[in-house]
Amino acid sequence: MGIYFRPKNNLLPELISETGTRRPMTDISTIDQLVDLIRESNITDSTHPIAVFNGTHTIDHLDSLLISEQHKKILQEKTIGFYFYEPLTHYKYNPNGHKQPHILKIDNAPEELKDIRAYELDSLNEWATKHNFNNVNVYCTDYKCWEYYQPKYPNIKLLSMDLFVEWWTCHVKLRDRKNFIQNREEMPPEFFPEKIVKKFWSGAWRYDPSRHFITAFLAGKNMLDTNHVSFYYGMSNEDMKRRMWFPWKEFELRHPALSNILLEGNTILQEKVPLSFAVNNPAKKGANDSIEPEDSGLNARTTHDPTDTYFESFCAIVQESRVTQPWPNISEKTLNAIKSYRPFLLCGAPGVLQMLKDMGFKTFDKYWPEDYDDIISNKDRLARICEIIEYIDSFTIEEMKLMYQDMEEILIHNHNNIKSIPNFYVKINEQLGEIIIE
Fold first, then answer.
1. Which of 282, 304, 326, 330 is the most buried (most CB within 10 A)?
2. 322: DSSP letter
3. Rounded to two decimals, what is the model's pTM?
């Protein structure tokens, strides 16, 4: 929950904790990823004072950035760039009080959308108003959420940047296919369709109802044993229904056959968890346990990018972190599949495929329907994704290998396009009237 702050005057960059304690970044070795992000991201070229919030929810220690009245006056004259290491924390406003969710859980009905706010933007808008900061540029992580939020937060300027994704694309090492064309024996394994022995890859680390939904469906369709699937949580059907973001009775009436498949599938799932790959000491987590699978040395991941399991699988079912909200957001989960030359189904928020297209990626509507991206209701979108999973599953492994060969141009294009993501954010912000790097 610290704020990295580089004031662009005679003060050194610092990390400021929730308590207001200031520590120079040169003394910090325990937050390696944050330090690397600061050093390697394009924001290091910015001429503005910059701040990066390494946390979620409200930012209660913003005033700790102000060392003196003179310092405050300097910031009143400057353009302040404020970035986030984590996605924004959206919530549905309740005038009678509200709890702080980890991730927004709604179905995007119109009556739900009108009252959505973001804790981080609440804090920054209040801070800018309090200190008469007229030039606070806030770089939102969720695609096009600024179109909705700008009227609600008039005292800050909303722009676009997912700092983690931007840094990841600059930091990741991609294989250049040109180096392998001459000698097939030296080509990386992802170019060999014969490596494909499973139809799907479906990774789920932390608990989320949407991940439970998809994994229960895979179980109900007898797809667990023949595919690469991870899931660690043992829960009764009642626990599963209670944790969903929608009333189960309503879902049962709208999707009766799928409702039965999920309940039957979850019963099967209870006998099979923990499902894992690239994990040491796999252990089952209960309904009342933490959403974090790793605990006391159990479920220790050997890698965050299990390439071997990708290469053995035809299609990645990407279980993104932000599904039950109105605005799309991608993470390394999507990019790892692309980096490994996999076609994908994206279990994300509505519009996430369009976001990828706007970034310059190609998708797979030549091979299966992608109309799920336009379905605003989160439960209905996942229901449609389940139908498409079943459609893809109808192909044999041999047919999938031929399909994979036909996809080669798309897969190579997507792999190479990863490095262009920073330019995507530059262009968006130019359209919004701001140049990040002068």
1. 330
2. -
3. 0.91
